[in-house]
Amino acid sequence: MSRTWCSPLPGGVRLAVQIQANAKKTEVVGVLDDALKIKLHAQPIEGKANEALIRFLSDTLSVPRSAIALTHGQTNKRKLLEISAAKLTPDGVAVLLLGEAA
Fold first, then answer.
1. pTM over 0.85
2. Domain range spanning residue 35?
């Protein structure tokens, strides 16, 4: 199944996310257009929201933080991340983040 917000890369996946900072708690909201919407319990200043996003994805996907690279959107609410983990597939990421089976 093709997921526009999560695409395969050699040795990992690419995620398109839209974040909402300053939320009461960090959680995945769902898919919005072509991005995965994630609420973050962090301020959007001095990179704190980016750090919270990487920490959340690292914990949820069981990959080291060093395997996650923020490639686009450092100061934007829309971001592209590349996760280097051969075990991850778009369908597997959807199960971990959204709880939905392929």
1. yes
2. 6-98
